[in-house]
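User: Teach me something about this protein's shape.
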Amino acid sequence: MATPHESRVAMKRVLKIALGTLAALSFELLSSTAFAFSGEATDGAFAALLSMPGAGPADGFWDFPKPDDLPAANEAALIAYLAKQKKAGADFNAYRHFGTLLQHAIRAGQERTAIWLLANGADPRKTLKDGTDNAVTLSASYKRQKVLSVLKTTYGLEPPVASAVAPPEKPVDAARIASLTFTSPADDKVARDFMRKVAAPMVFADRKPKDVAASEAAVAEWTALAARMKPEAYARVIDDDQALADLVLMHSRSATALDAALAGVPKAVLQRHARAALRGLAQRAFAQFGADSGVASYAIAPDVWRALWRYLPRPVDYQDWPSLAGRIQPELWDELFASGYANRNADTALECIPSSMGADAFKAAWPKMDAHFSNARQAVPRTVLSPFRTFDTSSCYAPGNDQTRDKLLFMASLDMAHPVRGIDRNRVAETAKALLPAMEPFIDDSNATAPAKPRLADARPNCRFELTGALYRELLRKPVVIGGPNSLAVYAESVQLIEIPGDAQCALLVGGTTQVDGYVSGDVDGFTGPETNPRPSCPDPTDAYEVWRERDGKVERLDADMGGDDGVPRLTLVQDTVTGRKYYLHDGEQYGKCHSNNPRLPFTLEWKQSPQGLALVKSAPSSELEDALYAQCGIEKEGVRCKGITAPGFAAVTDPTRKDAFSGLDIQPFIQVFRKPQFDAYQAAVLALDKPRLAEFKTEGVPGAWTAQAIKSLASASLSLAEKRRRIAWLFADHAQLTHALDSDVLQSLMGWLPREDWGPVLGVVASNPNTYYGIDSLKQNASEKGLGPLACDFDRAQGLNCGETWGVNR
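Assistant: First, the predicted structure itself:
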């Protein structure tokens, strides 16, 4: 008889064996998910059902191999065939074309089949693979009453009570508004919320007649409500930044209405919220110009501006609206400056107005331009000619050539022929030859004949860098999302070391491109059939950037005024040899179909204090700095080249020492540069299957690229197949990490040695990421060439297809 001690030892042995068996079984289940059922029987079941009348795609085609024993096209034969496939091991909850057999039967109107599938293991709660609909909602949508009845009586499942389409929200709760007595803060809040609903659409309400009518009706409701308020209640409701801005905005069509609205606002309230009142009108201010004539149309009438100015305390603070002069009628400029507007820089105040407006309006406005803007005689010719310069430096639009010609002749007659660098004679001759004579006095060819000494020279960042734990963990987030709460999600792709003045530690410029979740352009398959999704119109911005620096173990994110070009720009640190100031020079590259093919002049960025804190922003327009760039930079076959700058992208022969993290790298190579010892240690730990050390790495965080390299290295490792499989089992056990590691190269590296039964986790990742490119077509071809036909079929099934199936929009 065993002693208690011997019993405990025996029990521990049994428990150890049981745990080992359980672990092995867990991995076996994980690695063989795709093989728990018969793929051939499942293919046969889908082929039979999708061959039934009405079960094919609404558009396009699903072309799958037809079984030799395909049943007759009636439900009785189909059900008998499905029963046969069930016995052969068919998975009735597998997906093909984003739906299960049950879901496709409901879509196709095969109600008897759907009810039989429910009785034979089909899960009614499973949703479409790319959506939220299940058997209940699909049956309700397709009006399959028999299936709905079974779902209710047998499974207790019913469609949601709420309508599939929610009723439109009422713009105003008339009863609540009518009941307001303005005796409590709650009533004041309701009134302000009402103002927000009325005012918010006004910014764009003038675009469509029906919107104008709707907004005017809403304003009338507010006017009626305001008339019921006692003066003290009216003043109390309006004593709020947003409320006063909304008040001005909703009355921005009529000077009389705005005057009446502001007359009841106490001066103290206007004093407190003057900037908000200005915002209410300025956000609607814009000018449009006729495509050929350049005739202007302004959103705000002059009398409306005058009504506002009568009530605002002087001087008015225009710091949020530096370009307001270019958005209102020139006849108002005298009054604008008298009210406190102080921007005398024609570049930033007028922006593109001199280029966009017609010749007659330009001639009429010129005396006021000359009087109010100190650099008008130099800046205005440059703006008028901006569409014709070598680099596409701005978005300025020029009306018909005759309008531009008349403006040039007018400026020449006033002895305003300030030389403008960068005008491309050949380009003008090709597109607007008639303009050349009038343009001649303004063309500066000095940089073509006698290049000036480069003003901007290479500079090296004066900072050191350590990839600290805080920055490392932030870069490892999946995904690394940058951009503020009001911007589109931008997934970080690149990183570059950057200097912040006064900081000894280099910061990171992190950037990436916009990704619209759930949207794929081009030909896509779906539950009801293939279709062609159009490519999204140009998002704005298409990319975004932040600067990350560490402060007390936390990552601080600073704004970077760049991006929007659908690509990764190059920044290089340069120094102005005249002033000694440092700038970051942007290479000017633009990407994407929504940008001009013409190269853009490189531009400078610098560190400035903003209301949100320190930020890397574009330098204020400076004709001096711009002229220096035109003298220094030109277009060659390889792209834009700048004399005196050796950084990649700016010189034909770059300084090899600049090809480093200061020039920008993708995130994964960047991490590897600064964590090379850890990368080597991780690879060694995988090869040694040092589980305690690997657990430490997992806690610390492992880049996907490190795991990818570890997987690829196993192909050539001098280990037995059994030992390789042990390591793969460990690497595959973390599904999330495997997702970050997998790419087409990793999958190809596994093809030569990994047994089919170990591919389950990989196929699970492929199935869960249908929009990720894994080079599946190449993998299937490789598998077939190696005699691995069943594995090729597994790839098809992971993509939701029958073995050997193809699909398309057009045959």
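Now, about its shape. Residues 4-31 form the longest helix (28 residues). The radius of gyration is 35 Å. If you'd like, I can walk through any region in more detail.
User: That's plenty for now, thanks!
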